[in-house]
Amino acid sequence: MEKSFNRSIRIGQELQKKISVIIQYSMQDPRIKKMITVSEVKISKDLSYAQVFVSFLENLNQRNVDKILIVLNNASSYIRKLLCKKMRLRIIPNIIFYYDDSFLKGNHISMILNKLSKKNENTLFYE
Known about the structure:
The chain is an alpha+beta fold.
């Protein structure tokens, strides 16, 4: 019988918390002035790689997003070193950062649905 809450999910959640704290407080890179949110961490089965999905509170163009991702990926060894000090794991996974635009897509869909519902309310009054 498979566990419903396996180890890789728990480690992913803990990594998400620790990485977000490291990015907010320990990284002193002046190129990262934006508020960065770690939205999800996916870990491989052998715990050797972690895909870290980040999003930004501001709406950025693709060029700025790419620059920040390059900075984060270049700093991944530093972040990994800090994780070694904060977590008691035998293997700290290699970290790869990706941009998560699901919040922007969800916001866009929500705005479209709001416009449609307002149009439907207006048409109900005129029928």
